[in-house]
Amino acid sequence: MADRKPYHPKRPHRKTRTGCRACKARRVKCDEGRPACRACTARQESCVYAIRPTAAPSSAVSSLGAGSDPSSPGAVALRARRPHAASVTQQPLFVAPGRDEIDMRLLWFYTTATYASFSTGGMRERSVDVVLKVNVVQHAFANPFLMNCVLGLSAMHMNQLGIRNMGVSRAHEIRYRANAVETYRKAVAAADPVTYPALLVCSLLLCALSTHVFRGDDAQPFAILDWMALWKGIGTIIDITRQPRVFRSGVAALLFRPPIDLDASARCVPAYLLFMVASIKPGDPDFDLVQRYYEALQFLGSLYLELRNGFSHMLVLRVVTLPTFLPKQVIDAAREKRPRALIILAHYLVFLKFRVMSCWWMDGISEHELPNVARCIGPDWADVMRVPLAAMCISSNRDLVRLLLDDPDWDQPTTLQLEPLTSTCERELAIRAVMQEDAIARDAGEDKTKNVQVWPC
After folding, report:
1. CA 381, CA 271: separation in Å to the nearest integer?
2. What integer pLDDT is reported at residue 12 of this predicted model?
3. What's the domain range around 355?
4. I need a labelling partner for 174 at 20 to 30 A (CA). Which of 8, 50, 191, 451 fits?
5. Interval 418-430: pLDDT, tens
6. Do 233 and 267 sit in the same domain of this protein?
7. DSSP code of 132?
8. Boundary of a domain, candidates 217, 238, 256
9. Confidence at residue 31, expressed as pLDDT on a 0 to 100 scale
10. What's the distance, CA 46 to chain centroid?
11. Residue 27 within any structural domain of the chain
12. Pair (231, 119) in one structural domain
């Protein structure tokens, strides 16, 4: 009988399912090293890890409904119960010199979601997504004041969404914001031409970061006037930094303001507002401001003109940039609590009530300031305050348009993404995934709490 060959058990082998694409293509075991595995490093090849397929969010859309709020407890709980929900890597693959892990998480969140705060979608006039995600980050690494502003805005966005499991607290948000303002002021005082592109970007982002003053117990009445003055200050920064190097830096596209047809806009101003200014007689304290009031109404009319075409990214851009057009004298008159200036301000606040996903940082401004304006003006001006007073009780975008255009049957399609669960774009998937993981972590913590027995003394 032939001798049997000795039996050698096979070496245990754990199959990897998360290796890089190059190793998978060669059918070799990947050591899953980050940022590059050993095999790819030896071959001097690009090491790319595949993202595991996840369930499409359409089921969540159909279950929650197109008009649901992604941050509501019901929506978050429903997403947390889904076993095949999207997964997002929250840990940074590397930590840049001089930065910690929290910084890198915030930077990832900015390039994934927060950048869209200043995005205008696919507008031919101003498609700036690449500028926001690439050029701005490049300048941020070279300029600490801009990096603090970017990280502060990202932290503010996370806290606005109620995300807690990424280790970003309100204290982080406050620290980044304070550092951003302090270092920005020093950079403006230094006026180094090398920093001009970063100063322009920072002045823009600070306008969003500063809207924290409209929320919380510390919110002060008429803080919007300081906010509008900050917007006006961007023009000063543009005048200071108007050099060829700014346009070569790749960030000039962020400062685009759509031109306004003043004649067409003037025809769209509500008649009662025009009569309010036309009725000013010599001897009235506002007589010297008549021309400035007309100019402010012309700029306000551009919002009504754009609104007739329905919701669009151009409408949002006009609403956001309107303070940069308003005459300084009208803002100063509002500080003095002059009724006509406050009435013009109140009508602008109605446009700020529109719920637009990308401009999350504007949420709450109208709710905070419209009651302040109404209380300050009093009942004597009720006839010209009809629209702002009615808007205080309206939350639907469609009903706001009907009120502003005085058209109870208005119902037109929109080119702007208004509801957060009706899109499958990258940033919204990322936000939903992070919020879901946060909900799962909270549910796990609640389950542990339920298992703890409290014994009576």
Report:
1. 15
2. 55
3. 262-405
4. 191
5. 433 333 355 565 6
6. no
7. I
8. 256
9. 83
10. 33
11. no
12. yes
Q: What pLDDT does residue 200 have? A: 86
Alpha-carbon distance of 328 to 333, in angstroms, equals 9
Task: Please spell the DSSP secondary structure of 75-115, one letter per residue.
Answer: HHHHHHT-TT------S-S---TT--HHHHHHHHHHHHTGG
**Cα–Cα distance for residue pair 111/51, rounded to 1 Å:** 18
Pick the closest to residue 369 from 388, 386, 397, 356 (CA basis): 388
Query: Is 345 within 8 Å of 356 (Cβ atoms)?
Result: no
Q: Answer whether residue 57 is part of any domain.
A: no
3-state secondary structure of 222: coil
Comparing 33-47, 56-70, 144-158, 296-310, the range with the smallest average pLDDT is: 56-70
Q: Both 347 and 398 in a single domain?
A: yes
* Domain stop point among 204, 236, 256: 256
Residue 446 domain flag: no
Residue 333 in domain: yes
User: Do both 244 and 342 map to the same domain?
Assistant: no
Q: Which pair of structure tokens corresponds to residue 231?
A: 């917007």
CA 131 to chain CA centroid, Å, is 15
Which pTM does this prediction carry? 0.71
Which of 13-22, 79-88, 263-272 comes out lowest in average pLDDT? Answer: 79-88
Question: Does residue 308 sit in the same domain as residue 195?
Answer: no
* C-alpha distances out from residue 30 to 12, 14, 16, 53, 325, Å: 16, 11, 7, 19, 58
Per-residue pLDDT reduced to its tens digit, 116-145: 888 765 555 556 788 888 889 999 999 999
- Do 229 and 320 lie in a common domain? no
Task: Give the whole-angstrom CA distance, residue 82 versus residue 66.
Answer: 18
Find where tokens 């003109």 sit.
Answer: 305
Same domain as 290, residue 397 = yes
Q: What pLDDT, in 10s, does the model give residues 326-363?
A: 999 999 999 999 999 999 999 999 999 998 767 888 88
- How many folded domains does the chain comprise? 2
Main-chain phi, psi angles of 217, to 5 degrees: -70, -20
Cβ atoms < 10 Å from Cβ of 344: 24
In this structure, the answer to whether residues 224 and 340 fall within a common structural domain is no
Q: Supply φ then ψ for residue 49, to 5 degrees.
A: -100, 135
Show the CA angle centred on residue 285, arms to residues 280 and 288, nearest 5°: 70
Write down the pLDDT at residue 66: 40
